[in-house]
Amino acid sequence: MGEGQEDTFSSPTGIESGTLAASIVWSLWISRNQLLFEKRKFTPEETILKAITNAREWMQVQTPPSPKVLKPLIRSEPNPSQADVHSIYTDATWNSSTRCAGLGWIVDYRDSSSQHAATSTFVSSPLMAETMAVLAAMTFARDHGIDTLSISSDFQTLINMLNRQERTLELYGVMSDIYFLCRSFILIKFIFIPRAANARADSVTKHALWTVNLD
């Protein structure tokens, strides 16, 4: 094959392997969410069949890309005052040797501030760790009745993905949970900040990872 060309492998279903793989991951995550949130169970055969059907439908409706305006993740109904918005700063520290990650988030609201941490194992990359930190912070906010918030991170790649509502195969499940959780809030926005402005969250994550390494 000539230089610069790329192989495209198709599955026996007639669907490109990349499309089918993404559809299977998506269907698995949907089945998982329906089991958790709606108590609906699907057999493996039903899930795979649904993935194949969705992949075929997706391929059939594909048209040449055209400019479109993405629906922003920022939701406001009604628009709250700035004083009612909780400012949450997230960060993560990842150990490439152990695949462990320390997750941290700072919650600022009016004159109060609190810091929170979690740890996770078998984390695939720094980007995955940062995404998990955002999900952990959003879950905390929902569980504590916070419905107006801004999420700030110094990981610009992640913030860009969130504001564009993108998914990658590696992050499909976590991103899907994030987008699902967005429905729980009156207002949520994702903001990129310089690393120097996120020192508090960075300190929390390093301490969390240090405690994991002690175990």
TrEMBL record:
One of its GO terms (molecular function) is nucleic acid binding. Signal peptide: none annotated. Coiled coil: none annotated. Residues 90-208 form the RNase H type-1 domain. InterPro entries: RNase_H-like_dom_plant, RNase_H-like_EbsB-rel, RNaseH-like_sf, RNaseH_domain, RNaseH_sf. This is Uncharacterized protein LOC108815213. It comes from Raphanus sativus.
